[in-house]
Specification:
- Strand 2, helix 2 and strand 3 form a beta-alpha-beta unit.
- The protein has a single domain, classed as TIM Barrel, CATH 3.20.20.
- It is α/β, with parallel strands linked by helices and 276 residues long.
- Helix 5 packs parallel to helix 6, helix 6 runs parallel beside helix 7 and helix 10 packs antiparallel against helix 11.
- The chain is built from eleven helices and nine strands.
- The radius of gyration is 18 Å and the shape is globular.
Amino acid sequence: MISNLKDILLPAREQGYAVACFNVFGFEDSRAVIDAAESRNASVILSINLDMREFMTMDQIIGMLKPMAESTKVPVCLHLDHTYEVDVVKQAIDTGFTSVMFDGSQLPISENISCVRDVVMYAKSKGVSVEAEVGSVPYATGRDHIKSALTEVSEAVAMENEGKPDALAISIGNVHRLETGSVEINIERFNELEKALSIPLVIHGTSGIVDKDIRLLSERDVAKFNVGTVLRKRFGSSLRSTLESNPELFDRLSIMQKVIPDLKETATKVIKLLGQ
């Protein structure tokens, strides 16, 4: 069943678990994520990032994902990840995404709030949820223009009160696309943000956070964790292993039928770690 972000994050926040938001890049990983969610009877978010938007049109993406979400037994949210242009966010809303993220983290806070407010007003009449970001979560690789900045409590409060998003992505030491090693989460800053805010919080860059910190945050006010690198790495390693073990194999369906169970296994572990 299709759900928006607000409807699946509020129960998560109230009941002390978090929802996994997986960046997906096609049918195979989307199928694996949905299978994993159904096996855990868990809500889940299928997320489309900038790379995917440059590869396929929004109509093509929704044409693929919407029927998959509609046929599931669990709540599935179709989410547009980091998007920096208000008009593109509105296009996504009109196309059929049930959740959108306007990322104004590189803007002055007043401009960020103004843009989020505009998006929220447009989205609400269509039943679509909105995620914002205050502070700036850096990238380990790529996106060099994205700065690193901890979330300031006063700015986060202003965003909640004036922008009125349904969820807020925060920067507390987390890093996008970290392939090796781990980060140190600023728990003191998180405590301050949790105390000051009432909306569900979001963590990007989950792959670089150790399990004990993920469990701690998910049991508190972080209701959504974005997951990309760990699933992409499993896809690559599984595909290579399959082809190396079966050098004569060339049929796409046969190959992917061997890869999908590995992706499902990885997605299931993440969903379980987050408390579902």
